[in-house]
Amino acid sequence: MSHKCFISFKTEDITYKNYIQQMDQLDVIDKSLNEPINSNNEEYIMRKIREDHLNDSTVTLVLIGTNSAENNVYENQTFIKRELQASLYDKPNGILGIVLPNMYNSIYKGEHLCSACGKYHEFVNINNDTTIREFNYNYYIPNSKCSWGEKDRYCVLVRWDEFITNPNFYIDFAYSKRKEPIANKIRVFPTNQ
């Protein structure tokens, strides 16, 4: 079944967006913004993105590169932040974070020994220094456990090289999160927080 997908990305990562859109095996209806909206008014631009692209999309693909972090003071994150907010409001989209190769070492940190349970857990560095807050909060939704399993996360995360080998699997997986109990715990933050 084809899902209506929107790709949220920073301009520096447009080659990855273009690559996704040209994948032969991809079974989606592309709802991405491909031409800039001719305006300097941010409110108007976001309204057009919501109305024409996000309104009837069902999965948002978030390209996670070196310029897409909440705490990146050198980048204006207004649009990717608001695209994620719009993707999570009302009837939320599935959210699929695709970690680009230049971020592998910043995000995937290997295993660590947990002081709470004494077991090893994979350490995935998803926070405001690597992603937008709406993504990292909904990836690590607070719980009383010492680790997170797939049922504890709304956002889905995948490495670029794994995504391109089976994109429809990961898109389907993100789409399926919309009907899971974890969808009731989604949180969106005001732009000024």
Structural commentary:
- With 193 residues, the protein is α/β, with parallel strands linked by helices.
- It has helices at 14-21, 42-54, 78-88, 104-107, 133-139, 160-165, 167-176, and strands spanning 3-8, 28-30, 59-64, 94-99, 108-113, 120-124, 156-159.
- It has a 5-stranded parallel beta sheet with strand order 2-1-3-4-7, sandwiched between helices. A two-stranded antiparallel sheet has the order 5-6.
- 36% of the residues are buried.
Short description:
This protein is an alpha/beta fold and 193 residues long. It has helices at 14-21, 42-54, 78-88, 104-107, 133-139, 160-165, 167-176, and strands at 3-8, 28-30, 59-64, 94-99, 108-113, 120-124, 156-159. It contains 7 helices and 7 strands.
